Amino acid sequence: MGRPRTFDPEAVATDVANLVLERGYDAVGIDDITRATGVGRGSLYRVFGSKAGVIALALAGAAERDDARLAELTALVLASSAALDPLIRPELTRGLAIIGRAGDPELQLGRALLERHRQLAPPTRDRRHIYPNHTTDI
Question: The pTM is what?
């Protein structure tokens, strides 16, 4: 018989959601999660099963709380490798439905992704990093 759990799974999911909002889904690994939450790797896997399980709970929690960051979190997860994960897809569908009730979901998701892009890549006149084979400034 194992020791009793000493952490709140929903609090861990919220912390992981903050990491994903800060860095993006694919940039956050299990080691990042253990450092940020103080929860051991074994405990994370025992409770959530995987990183996708943590994100599924984070999306569910954001939807239940009607969190203002739901659109951004949903957009980031949709744009990641996790979008097809069977644990995450139902929560993405639920999040999209909630976003849709609040207005045009594509517009909200697009705005969230665009804002995220602006945060990560400030505008520049030199677009050679985007078009490496282009020889003149755009």
Answer: 0.70
